[in-house]
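Bench log. Compound arrived from synthesis this morning; before running ITC I wanted a structural hypothesis for how sodium ion sits in the protein. Inputs:
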Amino acid sequence: MMDLTELLVEAATLMGVGMIAVFCFLSLLIVAVMGLAKVAPPIADIAEPKPASPKSTQPANNAAVVAAISAAVQQYRKAK
Amino acid sequence: MMDLTELLVEAATLMGVGMIAVFCFLSLLIVAVMGLAKVAPPIADIAEPKPASPKSTQPANNAAVVAAISAAVQQYRKAK
Amino acid sequence: MMDLTELLVEAATLMGVGMIAVFCFLSLLIVAVMGLAKVAPPIADIAEPKPASPKSTQPANNAAVVAAISAAVQQYRKAK
Amino acid sequence: MEGLQKLWLETGIANFEPGQLVMMAVGLLLLYLAIVRKFEPLLLLPIGFGAVLANIPNAGFTEEGGLLYYIYHVGIETGVFPLLIFMGVGALTDFGALIANPRMLLLGAAAQFGIFATLFGAILLNTIPGFDFTLADASAIAIIGGADGPTAIFLASKLAPDLLGAIAVAAYSYMALVPIIQPPIMKALTSKEEREIQMEQLRPVSKREKILFPIAVLGLTILFLPAATPLVGMFCLGNLMRESGVVDRLSKTAQNELINAVTIFLGLAVGSKLSADKFLTVETLGILALGAVAFAIGTASGVLMAKLMSRLSGGKINPLIGAAGVSAVPMAARVVNKVGLESNPHNFLLMHAMGPNVAGVLGSAVAAGVLLSWVG
Amino acid sequence: MEGLQKLWLETGIANFEPGQLVMMAVGLLLLYLAIVRKFEPLLLLPIGFGAVLANIPNAGFTEEGGLLYYIYHVGIETGVFPLLIFMGVGALTDFGALIANPRMLLLGAAAQFGIFATLFGAILLNTIPGFDFTLADASAIAIIGGADGPTAIFLASKLAPDLLGAIAVAAYSYMALVPIIQPPIMKALTSKEEREIQMEQLRPVSKREKILFPIAVLGLTILFLPAATPLVGMFCLGNLMRESGVVDRLSKTAQNELINAVTIFLGLAVGSKLSADKFLTVETLGILALGAVAFAIGTASGVLMAKLMSRLSGGKINPLIGAAGVSAVPMAARVVNKVGLESNPHNFLLMHAMGPNVAGVLGSAVAAGVLLSWVG
Amino acid sequence: MEGLQKLWLETGIANFEPGQLVMMAVGLLLLYLAIVRKFEPLLLLPIGFGAVLANIPNAGFTEEGGLLYYIYHVGIETGVFPLLIFMGVGALTDFGALIANPRMLLLGAAAQFGIFATLFGAILLNTIPGFDFTLADASAIAIIGGADGPTAIFLASKLAPDLLGAIAVAAYSYMALVPIIQPPIMKALTSKEEREIQMEQLRPVSKREKILFPIAVLGLTILFLPAATPLVGMFCLGNLMRESGVVDRLSKTAQNELINAVTIFLGLAVGSKLSADKFLTVETLGILALGAVAFAIGTASGVLMAKLMSRLSGGKINPLIGAAGVSAVPMAARVVNKVGLESNPHNFLLMHAMGPNVAGVLGSAVAAGVLLSWVG
Ligand code: NA
Ligand code: NA
Ligand code: NA
């Protein structure tokens, strides 16, 4: 294939390009995450979900969920 | 393929035949379920299975069941 | 294929060879298991692992284990 | 710099096609509906995510060797995933309410008129230029009216794989919209007095009846509609494992880990069918419109049948429960309960609506069998 | 009316062949045995259901594109499902009793005489017109005497796939019948004094021995019987995961969800082999007869070996425990316990019988390896 | 006697090749490391066991029709297994610490220098006779420095399947050795004062941020690096299922049974690549050496980057946490915590190190994407 020098040059290029790409990408992600913090009001959101979740996490629009719960309850009762 | 009129006629036929088939089928099922109610004495059966089940639901004719239980017990003890 | 007599002879041979093989194999295993008993000091080993296991059974060199535990704890809390 | 340019040429930005962007927006919309609006999240979340993944340029998810390609071919093209889901749903379903009051099966039958009327409607759409649905296409679209996801996916994978994405999305979306679509229709077709009817408590059902029920259902399907036996058979297997009480290990796995794992894969595979060339067509608009019509007709015919039964029974049946005949378990039954409570705060219809609700599952599986044996 | 006639021509009623009806009855019988009689329900329920599904006319479960076709080809033809079950059983098995008293392995060896005697018997059946078993067929049939389901299915899928259905059904049926088949043989071959022998309590076994045991078993199998390594290897992997204590997550999944899901599929796939042309033959009668003989001979040779060991040990071994050497874990060990208690109400043999019982699993896997390396 | 000789010719003893014996010893060594030393047992136990099974003469595990052959072709060659593991790891990962302090992503970036430097090193090894790594080989080897098992297996299966066994073994071995490899490097590059720096408590993170985070990560990957979307996409799917809170059923299955079952199969399949002709080569020595170098360089570059950030932030960042940027979650974070406590017994760095730690997972997935889009 390629001779060694060419390969070494390509590896060196890839080293540089790769690190630049990784840093650029993760830097963009930093910006994006900082943006998220602005979109989302941190504290209200943290306080809120806990009490809501028992009712709303599983809206159970299909049979599976309701049935699963009732099945679990039944099994629990049997197990006792 | 077929021209539109033919298709419409076939769709209409299928509409009629399909609804008849669905009604016939589920009507037969009504008859069958009513038959079940006669075969099975409802109340004795309801009272009976509960005490029997702990012993007999899982006859455990193969290793899996016994071992599963002992494994579960072990895990439970470890977890404590 | 083969005629019946040949087959019967082969079946008889296999019966003999098979039982010899099974007995030899399991006899070797008896020797091996007896060897194990010498390698492993039974009592110290039995007393020892229990206290060690809670900490060390799952060294959790990767994310899965820690996260699994924390997830389980969270679910347990939610479930309460 | 040349190196960075080489990478740049591979970026999504440099390769996006407009259709892909639109389909990603559709995927994100489904994620929004699933997460924020909690519309059928168990399916719409994986479907939406699958739609996003399938439309990434240069990622090859749906090309040979790609993850979604494998999942689709192994699970959907073969029909295995919807059948396993059906087994799990069978293991999760309690037919007690239906066995106690088997007449409710008639409501499950009536609501299937939504399917067959929509089939006719889909063919009628061909009169509009741009539409060219075959009878197989029309059948696959019409099954949306059955309000049953795995049935719709199974039928679409057999009869109209190109429309699978749109059909599945429409089916799950409308199932999630049941609380919005059904109440006005239910109120329009019933009087206040009818909605106030209280129903007698259901009799208890014996274990033996519950064990024999899935066997009876399968038996009748074998005798009269073998084309429906893949769906009905796996459903009955799940239910028999549940009710027999002798294989609790298997039943528990079918109800939990197995159905969960398959649901993830099924959703991703359905989402992978949301590609621009298949979804951004006038047919999709037609499918969405027909789906809404199918639901409305199914609801109406269920309620009308219940009204008829109510008259014949001397007012012992609350016609609202007819709406539960479309299936959409257990959402439709809950809607019935809610509308019933609005008329009479002491009128709890939930248990009574569970009968027609599970009857609707059987009804649409039977309708699917009729379509398969006619068209397939 | 023409339309209804079209549907009618597709019904099961119009298409049933007599053989299919008989096989469905067989399937229903298996369901009855599983649910009502609680005979090995974890396998017989899915097998029975699979038999019903496979014999539905026009449903295509076992044709290319059908569900059972896929499951069979993916899981049984490849041997993957029985091996995964074996891994799970390994993860469920505690070899403590055997490690404490390794001489019990001789009982597990002796009981395999049931296998090899039956092999000879199967060939002998060829003298009757209508039977024409090859050595491979005879080997697959003989393994029924091993009283181990996955081993029988694995061997039959390799040596005699056409007989797989009958062999699997016979194996599981006789395993369920152990409490009926074994006691008379056990009583006939032992005196009352022998049955009353009490055995010494087993020594405790260290964790290190339990970890090294599966490695030792695998090592010997590699050295002397590589043909048995698929079965023994997966069994030892499961046991090593269990005993090592460092991969409890994996061990738990292998013992539960994985083995459960595979059991459902394995059962359905085995059931799909119960077709009229394969099952309603004189060979099946022969297989059923040979299977009963195999069990009886295995039980007898186990007991006789235990009698010999009892004599040589100066009466420290209760010969009843030899019957547990056929495997059929843990049923055979329980039968030993029960028969022991009948003679002496204070004589609990359960723990002592667990040693020969798990030895029987290894013994039949070794026998399967011998058969595979001779015939395969 | 002839018969016994026939069996003898099939034994392992009569058929062993020396290379197989050596590879079995390697397999046993891995089992020892997994069970006794508790080095990454979840992977090294199945890998070690797979290596033993794959090298049994006459057993055919890795030939067509063998168990490991099927598992490898179905799960590794397709890339499906590592992607499912990644989905599970995503469902197990809490990004809270990283969202609270996104600058930590720079540490996850810096540590990837271990990958790219190793790539150059692998090519440089070609100057030594006996080595002939292509750029694809070198890329697959270099990813060991990413300290992330599924990423390494995924990349190796695409770029250098022949080296897969050695690469996977090296990756998991060094991940297990993190507590030994990292501390000396960390101490050599930091002063005692730096190691004593206490960091501020992290702010709480809202549920909405946690839900949007995986979507943002996937969005950027789609825009800039589609080649990384299989890995990043499945990871984000798992994390979205976890954080959305609407599909707890699915998330739980992805975190438990699914990842457990796949881990068993993945380990066995990787182990099946440990054959003598592929593993007992000078390349393997090179891979092992390069892997150690990659880890060391990654650790050093992470720490140096953290030192720089510490200076720029006026001493608010403890440079030890840079070492966690290699990933090896959560081991590297724990090592940071331990080394921190050695300098200052009140300095708990665990939570602060979790940010760079999970950033390292993303960083190496991004690096894998760069390599795939350059070389693949
Ligand atoms: Na329906
Ligand atoms: Na046996
Ligand atoms: Na990394």
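What the model suggests: The longest helix of chain B spans residues 4-39. The CA atoms of residues 51 and 57 of chain B lie 10 Å apart.
ITC booked for Thursday regardless.
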